[in-house]
Amino acid sequence: MKYSISILVATLLLLASCSTPTNLKFEPIKFEISGLSWEEEPYKFSKDIVEKVIPEKGNYYGAWDFAYVGNIEKMHEAWDNEYKNNDSISLEDIEKFKTYLPINAVETIVEEAKNKKVTIINEAHHMPQHRVFTASLLQKMYDRGYRHFGMEGFFTSRISDSLLLADQYPSLSHGFYMKDPQFGDMVRQAIKIGYQIFGYESQGHENGKEREMNQARNVQTYMSENPDGKYLLHCGFDHNLEGDIGGKWGRAMAARLTEYTDIDPLTINQTYYSERSKRANENAYYQLTDVSEPSIFKNKNEEIFGIPKKENVSNDLYVFHPRSKNKSRAQWLNSNNKNTYEISLANTALSLPLLVFAYVDGEKLGSAVPMDIQEVNEKKVNLVLSPGKYKIVVMDVDKNAVVSEYLAK
What we know:
Blueprint: H1 2-19, E1 22-23, E2 27-28, H2 46-57, H3 59-68, H4 72-82, H5 91-97, E3 101-104, H6 105-113, E4 118-123, H7 128-143, E5 146-155, H8 158-167, H9 181-193, E6 196-201, H10 208-225, E7 230-236, E8 244-246, E9 250-251, H11 253-261, E10 266-273, E11 295-298, E12 317-320, E13 339-344, E14 354-360, E15 372-376, E16 380-385, E17 388-396, E18 401-408
Parallel strand pairs: 1-13, 4-7, 4-10, 5-6, 5-7, 10-12
Antiparallel strand pairs: 2-18, 3-11, 8-9, 13-16, 14-15, 14-17, 17-18
Helix pairs in contact: 2-3, 3-4, 6-7, 7-9, 10-11
């Protein structure tokens, strides 16, 4: 009985300590964010996104900007305001889908990739969850011979690739999509593991078809110059589709790469079966699921569930992602050895709302990609971080800023 009581008391004390925000001592700092020379402020307050970005550029860009500051709920709402879902399936379709069962996506992908020279996984550019998932594959893929990590949004520049590897951390100037903390940390982890990072984005193309062809040629050139090891490519949306898709593209980058190299890549799709702002807005098949981990659906005949009724265009594997249990700080953020840390901002004199940036200690403030960013309307914040030392920067709408050191244990 005494032993049980001791365990109970210890548990309660641990829970109490976890729920108490850490108080930090903040000092004023001159803080400027510098990214790509042609790009405007990379991190915006929600008010500016609603009043400026969406009216001027559309919900598409609004969704991106909400994602960059960690507002997953508003990200989904903005995206759904732009892209409606009109999917419907029959009772026969539903019954057929029930013959498929979920299996672990990471294990399946790694097993399928071990005998492939090239693996291409896509993302929706507004979905940090997809970048977190790709990051979860990196070490296991490296262990199976993958040594090169290529990304859309990086222009083809050996100088740029070399600077990234020299810095050993991601900076805002390294690529267009880099400003998302989850994209940045995906790259940070890849560098730490030992990948060679390269960009393959097209430059100077006049249309979508030329872009697909140029991207594939850029990958082909890199492979010829770096023949040892396997290649993992992270692209956007439909660029990894195989087969003849018709339309203005004819073929996507993945199919062009096969055309140019005779290599059949493993292609993985993350974009079809992911959450939206409301269940009714989701893909009709995805609405039928409630997976607790990234999953791939397979039937007793070992057939993978893909995109029904699109026989000429496909990917090899389709990932079904779990829904966010709490969109303010989704559980999938805690993948890849990350934990949530509650920090009090009570010692700051700054007025709400605030943007809170967590910079890895040793990475340059304002130009490095933060490990996490949150916009808050109260004097505390929950940051999702890997264990280590950080500089926590807090900035108000007038760009007044303070900084403090923080150790995430």
